[in-house]
Amino acid sequence: MRTVSAVFQTMRPPFLLLVVSCLLQSIGLLTYLNIDWSWLIFSLVCVCGLSAHIAVNMLNEYHDCASQLDFHTSRTPFSGGSGALVSNPDVLNAVRITGWFFIVATAVTGLLIMRLSTAQPFQLVTMGLLGLVIVIAYTPILNRYAILCLLAPGVGFGLLMSYGCFVVLGGNHSFEVMLLALVPTLLTNNLLLLNQFPDAEADQQHGRNHLVIQHGYSTAAYVYFVQWQLALLALLTGLWLLEVPWFVYCAAIPMVVGLRIYALAKDFNKTTPAFLAGMGQNVMMTLLTPALLGVLLCVAG
Predict the structure, then answer these.
(1) N or C end of the chain: smaller count of CB under 10 Å?
(2) C-alpha dihedral over 69, 188, 222, 269, to 10 degrees?
(3) pLDDT for 163-205, tens place per residue?
(4) How far is CA 224 from CA 29, 158, 215, 266, 275, in A?
(5) Residue 176: how many CA atoms within 13 Å on its side-chain side?
(6) Average pLDDT over residues 151-165
(7) pLDDT at 41
(8) Residue 115 — φ and ψ, nearest 5°?
(9) Which residues contact 207 (CB under 8 A, 6 or more apart)?
């Protein structure tokens, strides 16, 4: 049971809510645009998205334990790993095998989706392969290049998962929907960016080279602020182009806390209780904004 519990913890179950949030936005847009969609295909999309997220979480834990990084980080509820492998290093190989199992599950469900969807197969193959590359390469490769490390999380959850779900179920592309997909894209980029602040020194010592390491806390905070502004702009512009009812704009309410989080980030020196609270608020903003948007669009539709 101890082995099973440790392996399960490396899946980081609470973080899987981000998949639900991104897909809920897609369903809201399909409903508002009165596009019929298949529950079977959507179920496969859910399995595919959850499998991909579990795989990247588990492989991240595996690589960070194997490199000894997790033994030198100060864990927070949002960063520094689950700690399961630090306490149970003997299950390291089990985590690696399970992570690769979920990569296979992602690929298999992706092939089923491609077979059932009316979208162009070439487009689905391109998105699927890019998603697999991000999942497999995120920790061992992408984290060594600041710009790739910054953009990969958002591309995976926003453009590939949220917008990809819309394309798979609807069969067509939409500029407005792609614009709104930039909301979870940019917010997810910021989610991972802020979570790198407490671990920057340990990350640098173990071969990583993300934005916080390469350019410092101040620049990273400014990038956070720019991405937050762009996410808000994409949200408001996309809703305006779709001519939604006024109450759908309430989806922007969770984003108000972005200003306070930026203020904490630009003055970062060490991980204080206030900064930890800001990290929590950042998580909630990232989860609630697409989810609330999806719900409000369903009501408007």
Answers:
(1) N
(2) -40
(3) 999 999 999 999 999 999 999 999 999 999 999 999 888 888 8
(4) 27, 16, 13, 9, 14
(5) 13
(6) 97
(7) 97
(8) -70, -35
(9) 67, 144
